[in-house]
Design brief:
Blueprint: H1 7-26, H2 33-40, H3 44-51, H4 54-74, H5 84-99, H6 102-113, H7 121-128, H8 130-143, H9 151-171, H10 180-202
Helix pairs in contact: 1-2, 1-4, 4-5, 4-7, 5-10, 6-9, 8-9, 9-10
């Protein structure tokens, strides 16, 4: 049975939404605690109780989006028993949909700008998302007969093409956000290119 949410929980959620909007619009340094309270309708005492300070708000935002990515990646399991191209296409569409979205790109942009202020957040994100998903992908490649000392870099190549490069380009403003159809087409191109690489490895 799901846990009932209190008014305090709902106010805390509103504070996170307000903090997200303000951080994206103004940046972390230019956003004051009072601005978050004014926009969310909460109280300073609740904010300090739930988040501690402005840095705690930012950390909570990273944790929230990371949890959403984890939820999305649960639906991005690689189908067992399906042909490799079909399995990777299913996985790639779900993974791109979970990661290449506005909320994550906005926070990635903020995290890049605040990396020196929050040195542990990158590691937190890596451990909760990319690291375990990458391990699952390596295991899948091995089950399909791909071997070699470079299997982990080979798995990294898939994610670099699928999400790393476009996410960085979007975060830096070098390109706009992908629409769902564009994202699916991108995933299909990545799978085509990757399957060509894998085919050459399997043919050895």
């Amino acid at each position: 049975m799901p846990k009932l949410r209190t008014k305090g929980d709902l106010r805390a959620d509103a504070m996170l939404e307000a903090a997200y909007a303000l951080f994206v619009e103004r940046g972390f340094a230019a956003t004051a605690i009072e601005d978050v309270i004014a926009l969310s309708g909460g109280s300073k005492s609740l904010l300090y109780k739930r988040f501690g300070n402005k840095e705690g708000l930012f950390s909570a935002l990273i944790a929230k989006v990371t949890a959403e990515i984890e939820d999305g990646m649960r639906d991005a399991r690689i189908p067992e028993g399906a042909p490799m191209r079909e399995a990777l296409a299913t996985f790639a569409r779900a993974a791109a949909g979970a990661i290449l979205r506005k909320e994550l790109i906005d926070l990635l942009r903020l995290a890049i700008g605040e990396a020196s202020r929050f040195p542990t957040l990158g590691a937190q994100f890596w451990r909760s998302g990319p690291e375990p998903v990458g391990a699952l992908f390596v295991a899948y490649l091995r089950r399909r007969g791909v071997e070699g000392d470079d299997i982990e870099p080979l798995a990294d190549l898939f994610f670099a093409m699928l999400v790393d490069r476009p996410a960085l380009a979007m975060a830096l403003g070098a390109r706009g956000l992908m629409e769902p159809d564009e994202r699916d087409a991108h995933a299909a191109r990545v799978v085509d290119a990757y399957c060509a690489i894998i085919a050459s490895r399997l043919a050895r």
